[in-house]
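Notes, p. 3: input format for complexes.
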Amino acid sequence: MGNVIILGAQWGDEGKGKIVDLFSERFDIVARYQGGHNAGHTVLINGRQFVLKLIPSGILRPGKKAVIGNGLVIDPAALLSEIDALKSAGIAVDGNLFISNRAHVLFPVHRMMEKMSEGRPGRVSIGTTSRGIGPCYEDKTGRRGIRIADLLDTQVFRAQYDSVMEEKVTIAKALGIFDALDLRQTRDEYEAFADRIRPMVCDTALLLNSALREGQTILFEGAQGTMLDIDHGTYPFVTSSSASAGGACTGTGVPPTLIGGIIGVSKAYITRVGGGPFPTEALDGAGEMIRHRGNEFGAVTGRPRRCGWFDVPLLRYAATINGFDSLVVTKLDVLDEFDNIPVCVAYRAGKQEVTEMPPTVAGIVGVEAVYECIPGWRSQTFGITSYDELPARAKDYLAFLEDRTGVEIGCISTGPERAQTIVRTGSRFEKLMA
Ligand code: GDP
Ligand code: IMO
Ligand code: MG
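Output follows (434 residues plus magnesium ion):
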Protein backbone atom coordinates (compact mmCIF):
# COMPACT_ATOMS: atom_id res chain seq x y z
CA MET A 1 0.00 0.00 0.00
CA GLY A 2 1.30 3.47 -0.86
CA ASN A 3 0.58 7.02 0.13
CA VAL A 4 -2.89 8.24 -0.78
CA ILE A 5 -4.50 11.65 -1.16
CA ILE A 6 -8.19 11.94 -0.24
CA LEU A 7 -9.75 15.20 -1.38
CA GLY A 8 -13.02 16.87 -2.26
CA ALA A 9 -14.24 16.58 -5.85
CA GLN A 10 -16.87 19.32 -5.56
CA TRP A 11 -17.19 22.57 -3.55
CA GLY A 12 -16.25 21.13 -0.16
CA ASP A 13 -18.20 19.35 2.60
CA GLU A 14 -18.27 16.13 0.60
CA GLY A 15 -17.72 14.06 3.73
CA LYS A 16 -13.90 13.95 3.57
CA GLY A 17 -13.63 13.94 7.36
CA LYS A 18 -15.66 10.77 7.73
CA ILE A 19 -13.75 8.98 4.97
CA VAL A 20 -10.31 10.08 6.22
CA ASP A 21 -11.20 9.08 9.79
CA LEU A 22 -12.40 5.67 8.64
CA PHE A 23 -9.39 4.80 6.51
CA SER A 24 -6.70 6.51 8.61
CA GLU A 25 -6.59 3.26 10.58
CA ARG A 26 -4.64 1.75 7.69
CA PHE A 27 -1.96 4.47 7.51
CA ASP A 28 0.74 5.60 9.92
CA ILE A 29 0.34 9.34 9.41
CA VAL A 30 -2.48 11.67 8.34
CA ALA A 31 -1.34 15.02 6.92
CA ARG A 32 -3.30 18.15 6.06
CA TYR A 33 -1.76 20.16 3.24
CA GLN A 34 -3.70 23.41 2.82
CA GLY A 35 -6.41 25.69 4.14
CA GLY A 36 -6.99 26.69 7.72
CA HIS A 37 -9.86 26.82 10.17
CA ASN A 38 -12.22 27.57 7.28
CA ALA A 39 -12.49 23.78 7.00
CA GLY A 40 -15.05 21.90 9.05
CA HIS A 41 -14.76 18.13 8.97
CA THR A 42 -17.45 16.43 11.02
CA VAL A 43 -16.73 12.94 12.24
CA LEU A 44 -19.23 10.79 14.10
CA ILE A 45 -17.85 7.91 16.17
CA ASN A 46 -20.38 5.81 18.07
CA GLY A 47 -22.69 8.79 18.45
CA ARG A 48 -19.92 11.19 19.55
CA GLN A 49 -19.43 14.10 17.19
CA PHE A 50 -16.07 15.74 16.54
CA VAL A 51 -15.65 18.80 14.30
CA LEU A 52 -12.08 19.20 13.09
CA LYS A 53 -10.96 22.44 11.53
CA LEU A 54 -7.18 22.67 11.48
CA ILE A 55 -6.21 19.32 12.88
CA PRO A 56 -6.24 16.28 10.58
CA SER A 57 -9.00 13.77 11.31
CA GLY A 58 -6.30 11.13 11.93
CA ILE A 59 -5.87 12.58 15.43
CA LEU A 60 -8.97 10.62 16.46
CA ARG A 61 -7.11 7.32 15.91
CA PRO A 62 -4.93 6.48 18.88
CA GLY A 63 -1.26 6.12 17.97
CA LYS A 64 -1.49 7.78 14.56
CA LYS A 65 0.58 10.84 13.81
CA ALA A 66 -1.32 13.92 12.64
CA VAL A 67 0.62 16.50 10.67
CA ILE A 68 -0.28 20.11 9.88
CA GLY A 69 1.79 20.79 6.77
CA ASN A 70 3.54 23.91 5.55
CA GLY A 71 0.68 24.70 3.16
CA LEU A 72 -1.69 25.71 5.95
CA VAL A 73 -2.42 29.06 7.53
CA ILE A 74 -2.74 28.74 11.29
CA ASP A 75 -4.70 30.92 13.66
CA PRO A 76 -2.98 29.90 16.91
CA ALA A 77 -6.02 30.79 19.01
CA ALA A 78 -8.21 28.53 16.85
CA LEU A 79 -5.62 25.77 16.93
CA LEU A 80 -5.25 25.88 20.70
CA SER A 81 -8.98 25.88 21.31
CA GLU A 82 -9.32 22.87 18.98
CA ILE A 83 -6.53 21.10 20.87
CA ASP A 84 -8.19 21.89 24.21
CA ALA A 85 -11.55 20.60 22.98
CA LEU A 86 -9.98 17.36 21.77
CA LYS A 87 -8.11 16.88 25.02
CA SER A 88 -11.22 17.41 27.09
CA ALA A 89 -12.93 14.80 24.93
CA GLY A 90 -10.19 12.39 25.94
CA ILE A 91 -8.21 12.46 22.68
CA ALA A 92 -4.42 12.19 23.04
CA VAL A 93 -2.88 15.14 21.24
CA ASP A 94 0.55 15.61 22.84
CA GLY A 95 3.11 13.51 21.03
CA ASN A 96 0.74 12.82 18.14
CA LEU A 97 0.33 16.26 16.58
CA PHE A 98 3.12 17.86 14.55
CA ILE A 99 2.98 21.39 13.16
CA SER A 100 5.12 22.63 10.30
CA ASN A 101 7.60 25.35 11.15
CA ARG A 102 6.96 26.71 7.63
CA ALA A 103 3.17 27.09 7.97
CA HIS A 104 1.96 30.68 8.02
CA VAL A 105 0.50 32.48 11.02
CA LEU A 106 -2.92 34.11 10.79
CA PHE A 107 -3.50 37.32 12.78
CA PRO A 108 -6.68 39.19 13.80
CA VAL A 109 -5.75 41.87 11.28
CA HIS A 110 -6.37 39.32 8.50
CA ARG A 111 -9.94 38.88 9.65
CA MET A 112 -10.37 42.63 9.79
CA MET A 113 -9.04 43.08 6.27
CA GLU A 114 -11.36 40.38 5.01
CA LYS A 115 -14.37 41.90 6.72
CA MET A 116 -13.62 45.21 5.14
CA SER A 117 -13.08 43.76 1.69
CA GLU A 118 -16.14 41.49 1.79
CA GLY A 119 -18.37 44.29 3.03
CA ARG A 120 -17.09 47.00 0.70
CA PRO A 121 -19.98 48.70 -1.11
CA GLY A 122 -20.18 47.70 -4.74
CA ARG A 123 -18.24 44.50 -4.28
CA VAL A 124 -19.84 41.12 -4.96
CA SER A 125 -18.85 39.29 -1.82
CA ILE A 126 -17.32 35.82 -2.02
CA GLY A 127 -19.30 34.72 1.04
CA THR A 128 -16.14 33.59 2.85
CA THR A 129 -16.04 31.91 6.23
CA SER A 130 -14.75 35.25 7.69
CA ARG A 131 -11.73 33.57 9.22
CA GLY A 132 -9.11 35.79 7.54
CA ILE A 133 -7.87 32.94 5.34
CA GLY A 134 -7.60 34.93 2.10
CA PRO A 135 -5.66 37.90 3.53
CA CYS A 136 -3.26 35.54 5.32
CA TYR A 137 -2.49 33.73 2.05
CA GLU A 138 -2.15 37.15 0.41
CA ASP A 139 0.63 37.98 2.88
CA LYS A 140 2.23 34.60 2.21
CA THR A 141 2.27 35.14 -1.54
CA GLY A 142 3.24 38.79 -1.07
CA ARG A 143 6.33 37.56 0.81
CA ARG A 144 5.51 39.47 3.95
CA GLY A 145 3.92 36.60 5.87
CA ILE A 146 5.07 35.48 9.30
CA ARG A 147 5.69 31.78 9.67
CA ILE A 148 5.50 29.49 12.69
CA ALA A 149 9.32 29.32 12.88
CA ASP A 150 9.41 33.14 13.06
CA LEU A 151 6.75 33.16 15.77
CA LEU A 152 8.89 30.88 17.93
CA ASP A 153 11.87 33.22 17.88
CA THR A 154 10.80 36.17 20.02
CA GLN A 155 13.36 38.65 18.71
CA VAL A 156 12.71 37.77 15.08
CA PHE A 157 8.98 37.75 15.65
CA ARG A 158 8.87 41.17 17.29
CA ALA A 159 10.90 42.75 14.51
CA GLN A 160 8.85 41.09 11.76
CA TYR A 161 5.54 41.73 13.43
CA ASP A 162 6.25 45.41 13.99
CA SER A 163 7.39 45.85 10.42
CA VAL A 164 4.46 43.99 8.87
CA MET A 165 1.96 45.76 11.11
CA GLU A 166 3.36 49.15 10.17
CA GLU A 167 2.13 48.49 6.66
CA LYS A 168 -1.22 47.24 7.95
CA VAL A 169 -1.64 50.34 10.08
CA THR A 170 -1.16 52.53 7.00
CA ILE A 171 -3.85 50.56 5.19
CA ALA A 172 -6.15 50.44 8.23
CA LYS A 173 -5.87 54.20 8.68
CA ALA A 174 -6.69 54.78 5.04
CA LEU A 175 -9.72 52.53 5.40
CA GLY A 176 -10.84 54.06 8.67
CA ILE A 177 -10.60 50.77 10.63
CA PHE A 178 -7.48 51.58 12.60
CA ASP A 179 -9.26 51.95 15.94
CA ALA A 180 -10.13 48.28 16.01
CA LEU A 181 -6.44 47.22 16.04
CA ASP A 182 -4.64 46.61 19.31
CA LEU A 183 -1.24 45.71 17.95
CA ARG A 184 0.68 45.46 21.19
CA GLN A 185 -1.88 43.26 22.91
CA THR A 186 -2.00 40.93 19.91
CA ARG A 187 1.80 40.67 19.87
CA ASP A 188 1.82 39.70 23.53
CA GLU A 189 -0.93 37.15 23.00
CA TYR A 190 0.92 35.59 20.09
CA GLU A 191 4.10 35.31 22.15
CA ALA A 192 2.10 33.38 24.71
CA PHE A 193 0.62 31.17 21.98
CA ALA A 194 4.16 30.47 20.75
CA ASP A 195 5.10 28.97 24.10
CA ARG A 196 2.16 26.59 23.98
CA ILE A 197 2.65 25.33 20.45
CA ARG A 198 6.48 25.13 20.56
CA PRO A 199 6.63 21.44 21.62
CA MET A 200 4.55 20.44 18.57
CA VAL A 201 6.51 22.39 15.96
CA CYS A 202 9.11 20.77 13.72
CA ASP A 203 10.24 20.50 10.13
CA THR A 204 7.32 18.32 9.06
CA ALA A 205 8.71 17.82 5.53
CA LEU A 206 11.74 16.14 7.11
CA LEU A 207 9.53 14.20 9.50
CA LEU A 208 7.32 12.91 6.67
CA ASN A 209 10.18 12.05 4.34
CA SER A 210 12.13 10.20 6.99
CA ALA A 211 8.98 8.31 8.00
CA LEU A 212 8.56 7.33 4.34
CA ARG A 213 12.14 6.08 4.18
CA GLU A 214 11.33 3.85 7.15
CA GLY A 215 8.42 2.36 5.22
CA GLN A 216 5.61 4.25 6.93
CA THR A 217 2.60 5.43 4.94
CA ILE A 218 0.80 8.76 4.71
CA LEU A 219 -2.82 9.62 4.08
CA PHE A 220 -3.17 13.20 2.83
CA GLU A 221 -6.39 14.91 3.89
CA GLY A 222 -7.66 17.64 1.59
CA ALA A 223 -9.73 20.54 2.86
CA GLN A 224 -12.28 22.45 0.78
CA GLY A 225 -12.68 20.90 -2.67
CA THR A 226 -11.41 21.02 -6.24
CA MET A 227 -13.93 23.66 -7.32
CA LEU A 228 -12.70 25.90 -4.48
CA ASP A 229 -9.06 25.53 -5.56
CA ILE A 230 -7.37 28.90 -6.14
CA ASP A 231 -6.22 27.89 -9.64
CA HIS A 232 -8.74 25.34 -10.85
CA GLY A 233 -11.94 26.34 -9.07
CA THR A 234 -14.72 28.75 -9.93
CA TYR A 235 -12.46 31.79 -9.52
CA PRO A 236 -12.89 34.23 -7.82
CA PHE A 237 -15.48 32.30 -5.81
CA VAL A 238 -12.82 30.02 -4.40
CA THR A 239 -10.66 29.73 -1.32
CA SER A 240 -7.06 30.96 -1.40
CA SER A 241 -5.17 27.66 -1.37
CA SER A 242 -4.41 24.66 -3.58
CA ALA A 243 -7.14 22.26 -2.55
CA SER A 244 -6.62 19.90 -5.48
CA ALA A 245 -4.20 16.96 -5.51
CA GLY A 246 -1.15 18.99 -6.55
CA GLY A 247 -1.39 20.91 -3.29
CA ALA A 248 -0.60 17.76 -1.31
CA CYS A 249 3.02 17.87 -2.47
CA THR A 250 3.66 21.61 -2.22
CA GLY A 251 1.74 21.73 1.05
CA THR A 252 3.78 19.01 2.80
CA GLY A 253 7.12 18.67 1.03
CA VAL A 254 6.46 15.08 0.01
CA PRO A 255 7.56 14.61 -3.61
CA PRO A 256 4.98 13.72 -6.31
CA THR A 257 6.89 10.51 -7.10
CA LEU A 258 5.87 9.13 -3.70
CA ILE A 259 2.12 9.55 -4.18
CA GLY A 260 0.55 6.14 -4.75
CA GLY A 261 -3.09 7.00 -5.27
CA ILE A 262 -5.64 9.80 -5.44
CA ILE A 263 -9.19 9.42 -4.24
CA GLY A 264 -11.95 11.94 -4.85
CA VAL A 265 -14.87 12.34 -2.48
CA SER A 266 -18.21 13.45 -3.87
CA LYS A 267 -21.72 13.58 -2.55
CA ALA A 268 -24.41 11.66 -4.44
CA TYR A 269 -25.66 15.19 -5.17
CA ILE A 270 -23.80 18.50 -4.69
CA THR A 271 -23.69 21.47 -2.33
CA ARG A 272 -21.87 24.77 -2.05
CA VAL A 273 -21.60 27.36 0.73
CA GLY A 274 -21.16 31.04 -0.06
CA GLY A 275 -21.46 32.84 -3.37
CA GLY A 276 -20.56 31.82 -6.88
CA PRO A 277 -21.95 30.05 -9.92
CA PHE A 278 -23.74 26.73 -9.42
CA PRO A 279 -25.20 25.23 -12.62
CA THR A 280 -27.21 22.44 -10.95
CA GLU A 281 -28.53 24.36 -7.95
CA ALA A 282 -32.04 23.22 -7.01
CA LEU A 283 -33.86 26.32 -5.86
CA ASP A 284 -37.16 24.49 -5.47
CA GLY A 285 -38.62 22.15 -2.88
CA ALA A 286 -36.23 19.39 -3.95
CA GLY A 287 -33.24 21.52 -2.91
CA GLU A 288 -34.95 22.15 0.42
CA MET A 289 -35.56 18.42 0.83
CA ILE A 290 -31.88 17.64 0.22
CA ARG A 291 -30.88 20.31 2.75
CA HIS A 292 -33.27 18.91 5.31
CA ARG A 293 -32.47 15.22 4.78
CA GLY A 294 -28.72 15.84 4.45
CA ASN A 295 -28.62 18.36 7.31
CA GLU A 296 -26.79 20.66 4.92
CA PHE A 297 -25.69 23.46 7.19
CA GLY A 298 -22.07 24.64 7.37
CA ALA A 299 -19.99 23.11 10.15
CA VAL A 300 -17.96 26.33 10.55
CA THR A 301 -20.47 29.12 10.01
CA GLY A 302 -23.82 27.34 10.35
CA ARG A 303 -24.94 28.81 7.02
CA PRO A 304 -27.47 26.77 5.03
CA ARG A 305 -25.63 25.05 2.20
CA ARG A 306 -26.94 25.57 -1.31
CA CYS A 307 -28.05 22.20 -2.64
CA GLY A 308 -28.33 20.74 -6.13
CA TRP A 309 -27.95 17.74 -8.38
CA PHE A 310 -24.90 15.69 -9.25
CA ASP A 311 -22.95 17.49 -11.93
CA VAL A 312 -21.14 15.13 -14.32
CA PRO A 313 -19.21 17.77 -16.33
CA LEU A 314 -17.92 19.25 -13.07
CA LEU A 315 -16.90 15.84 -11.75
CA ARG A 316 -15.16 14.95 -15.01
CA TYR A 317 -13.26 18.23 -14.78
CA ALA A 318 -12.26 17.46 -11.18
CA ALA A 319 -11.16 13.97 -12.24
CA THR A 320 -8.96 15.47 -14.96
CA ILE A 321 -7.34 17.99 -12.65
CA ASN A 322 -6.70 15.46 -9.89
CA GLY A 323 -6.28 12.16 -11.73
CA PHE A 324 -8.70 10.28 -9.50
CA ASP A 325 -8.01 6.57 -9.19
CA SER A 326 -11.35 6.07 -7.53
CA LEU A 327 -14.33 7.97 -6.23
CA VAL A 328 -16.10 7.77 -2.89
CA VAL A 329 -19.79 8.67 -3.16
CA THR A 330 -21.18 9.86 0.15
CA LYS A 331 -24.67 10.58 1.47
CA LEU A 332 -26.43 8.19 -0.87
CA ASP A 333 -29.05 7.77 1.86
CA VAL A 334 -30.06 11.43 1.53
CA LEU A 335 -31.64 10.58 -1.85
CA ASP A 336 -33.69 7.65 -0.49
CA GLU A 337 -37.05 9.42 -0.74
CA PHE A 338 -36.88 10.88 -4.23
CA ASP A 339 -39.13 9.56 -7.03
CA ASN A 340 -36.70 10.78 -9.65
CA ILE A 341 -33.15 12.01 -9.40
CA PRO A 342 -31.96 14.46 -12.04
CA VAL A 343 -28.29 14.18 -13.01
CA CYS A 344 -26.62 16.91 -15.04
CA VAL A 345 -24.95 15.09 -17.94
CA ALA A 346 -23.86 18.09 -20.03
CA TYR A 347 -23.74 21.88 -20.20
CA ARG A 348 -25.32 23.83 -23.01
CA ALA A 349 -24.91 27.46 -23.98
CA GLY A 350 -27.65 28.39 -26.41
CA LYS A 351 -27.71 25.56 -28.94
CA GLN A 352 -24.12 24.57 -28.35
CA GLU A 353 -22.90 21.88 -26.06
CA VAL A 354 -20.12 23.07 -23.75
CA THR A 355 -17.56 20.34 -23.30
CA GLU A 356 -15.04 22.19 -21.15
CA MET A 357 -15.47 23.87 -17.77
CA PRO A 358 -15.83 27.59 -18.60
CA PRO A 359 -12.98 29.59 -17.02
CA THR A 360 -15.09 32.60 -16.03
CA VAL A 361 -18.04 33.17 -13.75
CA ALA A 362 -20.00 34.61 -16.68
CA GLY A 363 -19.19 31.50 -18.69
CA ILE A 364 -20.46 29.17 -15.97
CA VAL A 365 -23.55 31.29 -15.28
CA GLY A 366 -24.17 31.20 -19.01
CA VAL A 367 -24.45 27.42 -19.23
CA GLU A 368 -27.64 25.52 -18.82
CA ALA A 369 -27.52 22.14 -17.15
CA VAL A 370 -28.86 19.30 -19.31
CA TYR A 371 -30.43 16.65 -17.11
CA GLU A 372 -31.23 12.99 -17.38
CA CYS A 373 -33.69 11.76 -14.81
CA ILE A 374 -32.80 8.53 -13.05
CA PRO A 375 -35.62 6.69 -11.24
CA GLY A 376 -35.28 6.88 -7.47
CA TRP A 377 -35.23 3.72 -5.33
CA ARG A 378 -37.61 4.97 -2.67
CA SER A 379 -36.35 2.63 0.00
CA GLN A 380 -33.83 2.92 2.79
CA THR A 381 -30.13 2.73 2.01
CA PHE A 382 -29.21 4.38 5.31
CA GLY A 383 -26.67 2.24 7.13
CA ILE A 384 -26.30 -0.44 4.43
CA THR A 385 -22.82 -1.95 4.56
CA SER A 386 -22.86 -4.35 1.62
CA TYR A 387 -23.11 -3.43 -2.04
CA ASP A 388 -25.31 -6.43 -2.77
CA GLU A 389 -27.91 -5.18 -0.30
CA LEU A 390 -28.39 -1.86 -2.06
CA PRO A 391 -31.70 -1.53 -3.92
CA ALA A 392 -31.29 -2.29 -7.64
CA ARG A 393 -32.14 1.30 -8.59
CA ALA A 394 -29.53 2.71 -6.24
CA LYS A 395 -26.98 0.45 -7.93
CA ASP A 396 -28.25 1.68 -11.30
CA TYR A 397 -27.80 5.28 -10.13
CA LEU A 398 -24.21 4.61 -9.07
CA ALA A 399 -23.50 2.71 -12.32
CA PHE A 400 -24.85 5.69 -14.27
CA LEU A 401 -22.53 8.10 -12.41
CA GLU A 402 -19.60 5.76 -12.89
CA ASP A 403 -20.31 5.41 -16.60
CA ARG A 404 -20.77 9.13 -17.25
CA THR A 405 -17.88 10.38 -15.13
CA GLY A 406 -15.50 7.66 -16.28
CA VAL A 407 -14.30 7.17 -12.69
CA GLU A 408 -14.71 4.01 -10.65
CA ILE A 409 -16.92 4.34 -7.58
CA GLY A 410 -14.93 2.25 -5.14
CA CYS A 411 -16.61 3.26 -1.91
CA ILE A 412 -20.11 4.37 -0.93
CA SER A 413 -21.15 6.04 2.29
CA THR A 414 -24.66 5.43 3.59
CA GLY A 415 -24.53 7.32 6.87
CA PRO A 416 -22.23 9.46 9.03
CA GLU A 417 -20.88 6.64 11.21
CA ARG A 418 -17.72 4.72 10.36
CA ALA A 419 -19.52 1.44 9.85
CA GLN A 420 -22.08 2.92 7.46
CA THR A 421 -19.76 2.41 4.52
CA ILE A 422 -19.45 0.05 1.55
CA VAL A 423 -16.12 -0.81 -0.07
CA ARG A 424 -16.53 -2.41 -3.51
CA THR A 425 -14.82 -5.76 -3.73
CA GLY A 426 -12.12 -5.86 -6.39
CA SER A 427 -12.07 -2.06 -6.81
CA ARG A 428 -8.95 0.08 -7.18
CA PHE A 429 -10.12 1.75 -4.00
CA GLU A 430 -9.91 -1.54 -2.13
CA LYS A 431 -6.40 -2.15 -3.49
CA LEU A 432 -5.22 1.34 -2.51
CA MET A 433 -6.60 0.98 0.97
CA ALA A 434 -5.68 -2.66 1.56
P1 GDP B 1 -16.11 17.55 4.94
O1 GDP B 1 -15.87 19.00 5.15
O2 GDP B 1 -15.87 17.10 3.54
O3 GDP B 1 -15.39 16.68 5.93
O4 GDP B 1 -17.67 17.32 5.18
P2 GDP B 1 -18.54 17.93 6.39
O5 GDP B 1 -18.15 17.22 7.63
O6 GDP B 1 -18.47 19.40 6.38
O7 GDP B 1 -20.00 17.56 5.93
C1 GDP B 1 -20.41 16.24 5.75
C2 GDP B 1 -21.55 15.94 6.75
O8 GDP B 1 -22.25 14.80 6.32
C3 GDP B 1 -21.06 15.64 8.15
O9 GDP B 1 -22.01 16.12 9.07
C4 GDP B 1 -21.02 14.12 8.19
O10 GDP B 1 -21.24 13.59 9.50
C5 GDP B 1 -22.17 13.78 7.30
N1 GDP B 1 -22.01 12.54 6.51
C6 GDP B 1 -20.88 12.02 5.96
N2 GDP B 1 -21.18 10.94 5.23
C7 GDP B 1 -22.51 10.77 5.31
C8 GDP B 1 -23.42 9.83 4.72
O11 GDP B 1 -23.06 8.95 3.97
N3 GDP B 1 -24.75 10.00 5.02
C9 GDP B 1 -25.20 10.98 5.84
N4 GDP B 1 -26.51 11.05 6.05
N5 GDP B 1 -24.37 11.87 6.41
C10 GDP B 1 -23.05 11.78 6.13
P1 IMO C 1 -14.35 21.84 4.09
O1 IMO C 1 -12.91 21.43 4.28
C1 IMO C 1 -17.24 24.37 2.05
C2 IMO C 1 -15.92 28.38 0.94
C3 IMO C 1 -16.58 29.57 1.63
C4 IMO C 1 -16.50 30.59 0.52
C5 IMO C 1 -15.15 30.29 -0.12
C6 IMO C 1 -14.02 31.18 0.37
O2 IMO C 1 -15.19 21.69 5.30
O3 IMO C 1 -14.90 21.17 2.88
P2 IMO C 1 -12.65 31.26 2.66
O4 IMO C 1 -13.09 31.52 4.06
O5 IMO C 1 -11.97 29.94 2.48
O6 IMO C 1 -11.84 32.38 2.07
O7 IMO C 1 -14.02 31.22 1.78
O8 IMO C 1 -14.86 28.94 0.18
N1 IMO C 1 -15.33 27.39 1.85
C7 IMO C 1 -15.85 26.16 2.07
N2 IMO C 1 -17.01 25.62 1.64
N3 IMO C 1 -16.39 23.64 2.80
C8 IMO C 1 -15.22 24.16 3.21
O9 IMO C 1 -14.28 23.43 3.83
C9 IMO C 1 -14.92 25.51 2.88
N4 IMO C 1 -13.89 26.33 3.16
C10 IMO C 1 -14.15 27.47 2.50
O10 IMO C 1 -17.90 29.26 1.99
O11 IMO C 1 -17.50 30.33 -0.44
MG1 MG D 1 -16.86 20.70 5.81
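The radius of gyration is 22 Å.
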